[in-house]
């Protein structure tokens, strides 16, 4: 049995003679929150539509829970919930009526509607018309619709798009809860790198239809060479002293010296060395590149 909830093997997809997805091999481990990252127009939504069989993939290129999608379409789709582009919500119905409607369609007991409303934090707005919902509430209702059949796999396309900071935090916390407490596997696409960094366990970076990086969030951080920032009095003589002691200075401002980060032990030794030589160190910390700079690095080298 495959350990991947989603695996694509050299997936190619064209619209006419335009290649939208090129040789894409995604590997989404079961139970992960997989951040599918890339700029707008990179091929993320197309890939998600292929995973939902809304766009037909060539045979033997897309496997969900180890089964080929074209030949196991119905069985696979029963195990997936999705929110692609906008949630399909009826504005004239209440939040609860929208979900009850979905229960009837799917032949699920109607009690599930209340359960889902609580899960996504909409229990108090259950009887409010959906047209009166804020964007964040509509998005959570869309996620509740996707969850109503209790799928093992959730595909969320830019779920925080257009949300205010509060809505973003709500949807983010909901995703973490679903993965950790409810054992869902979540593929979430975004062009917001900092957003993914907060929730993802694994990351795939796509640009112009090609996968540039795939791995755990820690592997991604290892790519970004961490730096050590030292705030010290008397910057000039401190940097001369460090250079003479064999340290490499990467950058320097009037308050801060930046060196390559080696380990916490080495940082401690450096701190002691400066203090023993009469410098006053007011702060010393490790700083990683944010994903944005990292993304630029990866796209430059490809």
Automatic annotation (TrEMBL):
Record-level Gene Ontology MF annotations: ATP binding; ATP hydrolysis activity
The ABC transporter domain, residue ranges: 6-233
SMART domains: AAA
Signal peptide: none
Keywords linked to the UniProt accession: ATP-binding, Nucleotide-binding, Transport
PROSITE patterns (alphabetical): ABC_TRANSPORTER_1 (PS00211), ABC_TRANSPORTER_2 (PS50893)
Cross-referenced InterPro entries: AAA+_ATPase, ABC_transporter-like_ATP-bd, ABC_transporter-like_CS, P-loop_NTPase
Family that this chain belongs to: Belongs to the ABC transporter superfamily.
Protein name (record): ABC-2 type transport system ATP-binding protein
Organism for this UniProt entry: Pedobacter alluvionis
